[in-house]
């Protein structure tokens, strides 16, 4: 199995031959690839497909790459963004980076360089995709979908797994219920915020966190994991 298996990439460019070339190359590397011919389609696809990486051309019809990356960042989507442009102008690169792009490439470019930049972003932004991560007494193995606490595997439902993974990876940061709902249940979740309390209570039981020293509640603000 290739290390890229299961990693989702969105490609957006209004030049069909570039889309076809990149789609073929990245698919052969094992990535799950979806394509969009313009900015509006890219944004819609991103919110549904939830890719780990987006490769966006700057100059596209309907909506340019700048607006796409700006809207993606405002949506709270956790996604790495590499922007492509035929213009070797500093002001374009600066604008893209200020709006939330992670990297920039000037056309034409070598496929191997793009692949290296994608892998660099994934290592930095999604370390769990390429191996297990340990924080204090908690070890998260995303390949096996297992979380261990003091070397004991926790029996977790899929949602409990995603919730514990999210709050542990953001340990030390206060997370509001709204943020947790958006990142764990999805931006289109139509239920009540109280569902977060129910799942946090269950996690505390499974972690033996009766005194709430691991998952702390900050009343009126949210939750924070202390490791």
From TrEMBL:
The keyword Transcription regulation applies. One of its GO terms (molecular function) is phosphorelay response regulator activity. Residues 130-227 form the OmpR/PhoB-type domain. It comes from the Bacteria. Keywords: DNA-binding, Phosphoprotein, Transcription, Transcription regulation, Two-component regulatory system. Transmembrane segments: none annotated. CDD domains: REC_OmpR (cd17574), trans_reg_C (cd00383). This is Transcriptional regulator. It holds the Pfam family Response_reg. Residues 130-227 bind DNA. The modification 4-aspartylphosphate is found at residue 57. One of its GO terms (cellular component) is protein-DNA complex. SUPFAM superfamilies: CheY-like.
């Amino acid at each position: 199995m290739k290390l890229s298996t299961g990693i989702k990439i969105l490609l957006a460019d209004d030049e069909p031959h570039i889309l076809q070339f990149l789609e073929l190359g990245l698919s052969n590397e094992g990535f799950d690839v979806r394509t969009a011919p313009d900015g509006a389609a890219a944004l819609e696809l991103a919110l549904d497909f939830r890719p780990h990486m987006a490769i966006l051309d700057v100059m596209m019809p309907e909506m340019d790459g700048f607006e796409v990356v700006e809207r993606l960042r405002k949506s709270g989507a956790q996604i790495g963004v590499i922007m492509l442009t035929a213009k070797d102008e500093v002001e374009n690169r600066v604008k893209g980076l200020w709006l939330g792009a992670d990297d920039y490439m000037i056309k034409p470019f070598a496929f191997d360089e793009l692949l290296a930049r994608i892998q660099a972003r994934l290592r930095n932004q999604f370390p769990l995709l390429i191996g297990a991560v340990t924080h204090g007494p908690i070890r998260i193995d995303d390949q096996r979908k297992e979380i261990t606490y003091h070397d004991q595997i926790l029996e977790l439902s899929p949602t409990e797994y995603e919730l514990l993974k999210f709050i542990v990876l953001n340990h030390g940061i206060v997370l509001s219920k709204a943020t947790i709902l958006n990142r764990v249940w999805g931006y289109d979740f139509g239920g009540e915020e109280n569902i977060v309390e129910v799942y946090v209570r269950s996690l505390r039981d499974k972690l033996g966190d009766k005194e709430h020293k691991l998952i702390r509640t900050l009343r009126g603000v949210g939750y924070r994991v202390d490791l």
